[in-house]
Please model this.
Amino acid sequence: MGAKQVSSKSPPSKAMPVLTTDIAIIGAGVGGCIAAIALHQALGENCTITLIEKSDQAKTPQHETHQTPVKAGENLPPAAERILKKLGLYRRFISANQQGHMAQASMGMQSYWGNDQRQIVDNLSNPDGFGWQLNRSAFEKFLNECATEQGVKIHWSTTVCESIRHEEYWKCQLQTGEDRINLNAKFIIDASGRRASFARQQGAKRQALDRQVAYWATIANNTENQLSTIVTCPYGWWYSAALPNQQRVVALHTFSDLVPKNLRKNVYDFLMLARAIPQIAPLISTSVNYHGVTAANTCRMSQVAGSHWAAIGDAAVAFDPLSSQGMFNAMATAMQLSDLIKASDILNTESLPQRENQEKSIEHAYEKQIDSIWRHYLGHWQHYYQQEKRWLDQTYWRERNSFA
Ligand SMILES: Cc1cc2nc3c(=O)[nH]c(=O)nc-3n(C[C@H](O)[C@H](O)[C@H](O)COP(=O)(O)OP(=O)(O)OC[C@H]3O[C@@H](n4cnc5c(N)ncnc54)[C@H](O)[C@@H]3O)c2cc1C
Model:
């Protein structure tokens, strides 16, 4: 495997430094970090892994455990604990969270779905334990640190502008601040979330099954009840959950044409809608940090792996937040891909035909795994939405019920 090397002696273009790595991972979110850690553990010290992250470490609140989150998604399902344990991160997660600033146990959910009766699903009986309500920024910072300690270099404020496959390497040009760097990587993992930036550069297309978006805010948490709340209404559904540091997330899932036009900018309209929902109104406090709107639909890429590249997490398949499975899926697909790369020994193979065969087998096996996740998810997704039949005369629920 290639040793990490930064040199300006023989660059492909003038005066541009060249970084050579075995595996480049685009995106240092949950999926990217878990992939980096899993691959490092599977392939050992000699395999160099580089994370390329668009956001600016200094400008994001990742250093501040008390800051409110900037990425939607806070419920880490109980099954994620197995992956943290497998990677030897769980004890460290617990000890880093002694003050409870990064995560608090997720007690379960009260749901008003299909009728006005409250249904409680508590996590007491879950064999995997409670699951966690995360301060997402603090959790990602924790994973960034775990990856860095294992020798993974993270390039912040950096994106891949161009890439071509040439012999043994992907030859990429990175934009990092004002500078450009050439990167040679044997294998590229796209962990860039819903943007799927590398997969799309390779010609993969996003296939969206619906047009749901989420309007969301973090607010001060003034209530004792630690159960998450989910409640349907004629134009979609609301969700709220307690977060660490006396915070709470409140989110509306709907279609953008069913709500006031300027809702993404107008916190007052958002609060007015929230206060009109009897189960959400008592949760609303006065201290509000409104994040506007974000995509919350179900989609997958037409292709999730190709010649010496693969996409994981949201860059491969992105789920409806109703499933609370997005982070787990990012972690699980990172683990699956890491196992396939290790089993193939592709990074150590010199012969081109042999490498191409290994590549085909990774591609085939990985596409099959993603297909299976996708089919499983779709079954649950359709089933769940079909449980709500009260507003079939309304656009949102008519479209939700028309999947079958
Ligand atoms: C409203 C809402 C609520 C949700 N709630 C939950 C929940 O409760 N539980 C749950 O498990 N999931 C939830 N999800 C889904 C979850 O947040 C995602 O599935 C998860 O973030 C996917 O992780 P990822 O690592 O694949 O991508 P991301 O977390 O999106 O990380 C991608 C990273 O790549 C970086 N990046 C993007 N483009 C580039 C580029 N060109 N170059 C370099 N870097 C780049 C980004 O800055 C980011 O750091 C929710 C989603 C939404 C929208």
